[in-house]
Amino acid sequence: MAFRIGLVLALFSGVPSAARAADDSGDIVAVSSRVSDDYIRKKLPDGSYRPESYAFGSGGFRGGALSDRTIDNLGFTQIAHTIAGPLPQKQYVPTKDPADTRLLIMVYWGTTRPPEKQRHSAAFQAVLSAKQELDLAKAGGNGAMIASAGNAFFTAMGIVQMEEERRERLDADNAAMLGYDSWWGDTSQLKNTVFDGRRNDMIEELEEDRYFVVLMAYDFQLLWKEKKHKLLWETRFSIRERHNDFDKQLAAMSSAASRYFGQESKGLRHKPAPEGQVEAGELKVIGYDSGKK
Question: pTM of the full predicted structure?
Answer without folding.
Answer: 0.78
